[in-house]
Design a protein that fits this description.
Helix content: 40-55%
Largest sheet: 5 strands, mixed
CATH topology of the largest domain: Nucleotidyltransferase, domain 5
Number of domains: 2
CATH architecture of the largest domain: 2-Layer Sandwich
Strand content: 15-25%
Distance between the termini: 30 Å
Order of helices and strands: HEEEEEHEHEHEEEHHHEHEH
Structural class: alpha/beta
Shape: globular
């Protein structure tokens, strides 16, 4: 896959965290809300599905894809929405959301209630790897979304999802290993993990966690005709982790330049009005 166009979309979205793009007063806006274990991200696209604004906040109100602090989650989403409304000079009214693969109906409803509590009407709910594929556009292969709490995957055949799975193990587990190894707090480990210049030092330490993620993928693709795997999600920003997964799984593993924002962008692309 040529990631040139995909990386360009993500770079445009990255810039929108600081630089808001002007929109027309009556222009349709598409909003995506990603309720992640580590970060809550809100993305706004214009009528041409181009990124115009993005805001995010570190949060620990979601655990393994489930809302564990409803009030806290709602407050954060509301705060981010109001921030973006102020930047755009426009109210935000509708949004799409995504959940880990296999999330039950009750838990999907809780995610919806959080976003509705922030004043947005839900237009669609989809699983995270499917949301990511709105950006990647693969017909055949596996998209693995590794966030803070879980490793989720969707197998695609002829552009359609044929199987999904999700298991606990994600960036939180990486941070816990880092914290234990360096005898630092979890918060300090989270910050250390973001320092790309330290990734070469960190990767051997967290290798067992990455191998566990690979084992989850390998287990769930067994029996399926799979030729390649694509990584998205904040945890996949860890430099060269894809090489470990490739060795463990025995298949080519690819990822865009910034895997973190792929799913939030894909969620916004699925906001149907």
């Amino acid at each position: 896959m040529d990631f040139t166009s995909i990386n360009k979309q993500i770079q445009d979205l990255e810039r929108c965290q600081e630089q808001t793009i002007a929109v027309d007063p009556n222009e349709t806006l598409h909003v995506g809300v990603d309720l992640g274990t580590a970060y809550i991200v809100v993305v706004v696209l214009n009528g041409k599905k181009k990124a115009v604004a993005c805001a995010m906040e570190f949060a620990q109100v979601i655990k393994d894809g489930l809302v564990v602090d409803y009030t806290g989650a709602t407050k954060i989403v509301r705060r981010l929405v109001q921030q973006l409304e102020g930047r755009l000079g426009r109210p935000l009214t509708h949004a799409a959301i995504a959940v880990p693969p296999g999330t039950g109906k009750k838990d999907c409803s809780t995610h919806s209630y959080v976003v509705e509590g922030a004043g947005l009407e839900i237009t669609s709910i989809l699983d995270e790897p499917t949301a990511a594929n709105a950006v990647l556009g693969i017909d055949n292969g596996v998209i693995v979304d590794i966030g803070g709490g879980t490793t989720g995957l969707a197998i695609f055949k002829n552009g359609k999802v044929t199987s999904v799975a999700d298991e606990a193990t994600g960036g939180t587990h990486v941070s816990l290993v880092i914290a234990g190894n360096y005898n630092i707090s979890f918060a300090e480990a989270e910050e250390l993990k973001k320092q790309t210049e330290r990734h070469g030092e960190i990767l051997p330490i967290v290798r067992p966690v990455v191998q566990k993620m690979a084992s989850i993928v390998k287990k769930h693709i067994a029996g399926h005709k799979v030729s390649e795997i694509y990584l998205v999600g904040g945890t996949c920003c860890l430099t060269n982790m894809e090489k470990i997964m490739e060795k463990e799984i025995g298949l080519p593993v690819y990822k865009p330049a910034n895997p973190f924002l792929v799913t939030p962008l894909g969620i916004a692309l699925n906001c149907k009005l």
